[in-house]
Specification:
Elements lengths: L14 H23 L5 H10 L2 H19 L4 H28 L10 H10 L7 H22 L4 H21 L6 H4 L9 H12 L1 H10 L1 H24 L14 H23 L5 H31 L2 H5 L4 H21 L5 H5 L11
């Protein structure tokens, strides 16, 4: 079989990916609620936080995978591809950077609403709020997509070598970020905003899309093995985290996303979520309530991702510390998580039904038809 024979030739919706997307975004919210509510001595919560710190890598694998699948099924000229992609991410990015810029200034005594330079700096560096760099890196992937697909095509038959080189590079630069902080200057202090910090997972997403049928077939045929890999990966990560803590790192830093071991765990849990997605897709009943709920959740996931830190901030601002004194750990984390999820869902449902849907949710507004 030729290498070209593995290329996607017909587009279909991958319900497997919907499950992976929903679980990843749910874990992103878990990261942020846990990091905002865990006390310094909460060993269990910091262990959970370490387990949840895979989301960056899996998110960018998913972004590259879906993007490559779309391209392989229906190649689009760049004059159409870039405007469409940048519109759906760039407009929400600018909108939410502005929203969070205003929010971050509300409690400042030296408030300067006309700080255009500060706003532009946040736009360029992805620092409008702690989650917006996801969108900045996504746009870098969009910009580099033609080069990525050219590389994947040129290395057909040698993809294992390509991914090996990418893995070594990402592992090395992650180790530099972690163990030689500041050695790369601006790059070190802003490591999460650069695409090359996730090079292996970005290329792996495109390569997996190139071999979609074989890749998803392997996942479907090896669910039990993947479950074992995921469980072992979790055990290895927690062991690494605890040893790093015993060697002097804080509970948080021992499980930071910059720990090189996080690459291994991200690959394991990503496979685990995808295996769960294939199980769901194989049993999905389009007429069932569960299928409609999953479809809806997948559609709203980006909006939920965009709004949830604002709700965490509002809870922290309104609570002014009293909530933490009333609700003990770990119930505080659970309460905040559920509250933020519920509030984010309500926001997403409302925003999707307004003309502001595109800037607020990244989805185009579709007017509902009245009558038959």
């Amino acid at each position: 079989m030729s290498a070209a024979a593995t290329v996607v030739t017909k587009a279909r919706h991958l319900y497997e990916v919907d499950v992976l997307r929903i679980l990843t975004f749910a874990c992103v919210i878990g990261v942020h609620t846990t990091s905002h509510t865990a006390r310094s001595e909460d060993v269990g919560l910091y262990g959970l936080l370490a387990l949840l710190h895979f989301t960056r890598e899996v998110f960018f694998w998913l972004t590259s995978f879906v993007l490559a699948l779309s391209y392989l099924a229906k190649p689009t000229p760049l004059k159409k591809f870039w405007p469409k992609r940048f519109l759906l991410v760039g407009i929400p990015y600018l909108t939410w950077t502005a929203i969070y810029f205003l929010a971050s200034n509300i409690q400042r005594d030296d408030l300067e609403w006309n700080d255009i330079g500060g706003f532009l700096y946040r736009v360029v560096t992805g620092t409008g709020w702690y989650h917006l760099y996801f969108l900045l890196v996504t746009m870098q992937v969009y910009l580099l997509h033609p080069l990525i697909m050219w590389l994947v095509r040129k290395t057909a038959g040698r993809h294992a070598l390509l991914l090996s080189v990418a893995a070594v590079f990402q592992l090395a630069i992650t180790a530099v970020y972690m163990y030689l902080p500041g050695s790369l200057g601006f790059v070190s202090s802003n490591s999460k905003i650069f695409f090359f910090s996730y090079l292996f997972f970005i290329l792996a997403g495109a390569v997996c899309a190139w071999h979609k049928d074989a890749f998803l077939g392997w996942v479907r045929g090896n669910r039990r093995l993947i479950a074992v890999i995921t469980a072992v990966g979790a055990l290895v990560l927690l062991t690494w985290w605890w040893i790093a803590h015993l060697q002097g790192l804080s509970l948080y830093r021992a499980g930071t996303p910059l720990q090189p071991i996080m690459m291994v765990w991200s690959a394991a849990i990503g496979l685990g979520f995808l295996a769960l997605g294939t199980w769901w897709a194989d049993r999905r009943d389009p007429a069932s309530f569960t299928a409609r709920a999953v479809d809806q959740a997948s559609d709203r996931s980006f909006a939920i991702f965009l709004i949830h830190p604002l709700l965490i901030w509002v809870l922290g601002w309104a609570g002014a510390g009293w909530l933490a004194s009333v609700v003990p750990s770990p119930w505080l984390t659970l309460l905040v998580y559920v509250t933020v999820i519920a509030g984010s869902i309500v926001f997403a449902e409302i925003a999707r039904r307004t003309p502001a849907s595109l800037p607020l949710t990244g989805r185009r507004y579709q007017r509902r038809r009245v009558g038959g």
